[in-house]
Specification:
The protein has 103 residues and is of the alpha+beta class. The chain has one domain. 21% of the residues lie in helices and 26% in strands. The chain is built from 2 helices and 6 strands. The chain has a 3-stranded antiparallel sheet. A 3-stranded antiparallel sheet has the order 4-6-5. The protein is globular and about 30 Å long. The N and C termini lie far apart (31 Å).
Length: 103
């Protein structure tokens, strides 16, 4: 495992999502720890970072509903203040209630 650091601000969530997608395209797979990667096959993945409702991991019902939309929970960041999700299929779509203009 290796730790990678993005060249963008940790508070620019859209830039972080794009950076994570770039890492996946290079064959780096984000593990269950923020900024820890393991070697994998290059993959076209999307990432979605959102504020956590409560600190910690998302509840199982949220994980289940996101799985139906093609997303899996990966890890938290910034002391569990944000949730990091990764697409698991080509047809992953963002949940409507969290969609932001311009995404």
């Amino acid at each position: 495992m290796a730790t990678e650091n993005p060249k963008c601000s940790r508070y620019d969530l859209r830039a972080l999502e794009q950076w994570l997608a770039g890492q996946a395209a290079k064959g780096k797979r984000l593990t269950g720890e923020w900024l820890e990667f393991e070697d994998d096959r290059p993959a076209a993945r999307q990432f979605y970072i959102e504020p956590a409702q409560d600190k910690g991991r998302p509840p199982q019902p949220l994980r289940d509903s996101r799985a139906l939309s093609g997303w899996e929970f990966v890890c938290t960041m910034d002391e569990e203040a944000f949730l990091v999700w990764r697409s698991v299929g080509e047809r992953a779509r963002l949940p409507r209630m969290h969609e932001m203009p311009g995404r």
